[in-house]
Structures are given as C-alpha cells and as structure tokens.
Amino acid sequence: MRNDPYPVCALEPGQLAAMRARPLPRRELTQPALILLGLLRLYVLVAVPIVCYAFVHALMTPQ
C-alpha cells in the first residue's frame, strides 16, 4: 500500500458523501483581516460605478 498524501481518497463513496454533507464551521478572522475585507468592499463599491460610467461614456462618445 502506497503512502497516499490525501487520505480522503481512501474513503468509500458512502463515507465520502457523508463527510462532504457535514457543514464546516465558520472561520474566525482576525481584526486586520476584517479591516482588509472592509476596505476591499469599499474599493469595489467605488470602482464599479466608475467603470460603468467609463463604459457608458465610451459607448456614447462618437468615433
């Protein structure tokens, strides 16, 4: 028997299905990670309207 680095491959199909059906707990994030995600959300909220405006403006501008 070879040394398999992925022990999930050794499970039977029923065991694998049962393992995948069980939900995983939410990950606890640190304060810097939460701040970074908040800044990323703010960036997306600012960038999407700017990109949409540039796209519409480029469509409306005659060649």
Structure description:
With 63 residues, the protein is mainly α. It has one domain. The chain has two helices and no strands. The chain is elongated, with a radius of gyration of 24 Å. It starts with 12 loop residues before the first helix and ends with a helix. The model has no long low-confidence stretch (mean pLDDT 89).
Brief summary:
The chain has one domain (7-60). Helices cover 62% and strands 0% of the residues.
What does the secondary structure layout of this molecule look like, with pairings?
Layout: H1 13-21, H2 31-60
Defining traits:
63 residues, mainly alpha, 2 helices, 62% helix
Contiguous low-pLDDT stretches (5 residues minimum) are: none
Coarse morphology: elongated
Work out the number of β strands: 0
Radius of gyration using CA atoms only: 24 Å
Q: Could you estimate the helical fraction of the residues in percent? A: 55-70%
How many strands, what sense, and barrel or not for the largest sheet? none
Distance between the termini: 69 Å
Number of helices: 2
Helix/sheet category:
mainly alpha
- Could you give the order of the helices and strands? HH
The oligomeric status of these chains comes to single chain
Q: Which range does the strand content fall in?
A: under 5%
Number of domains: 1
Output mean pLDDT: 89
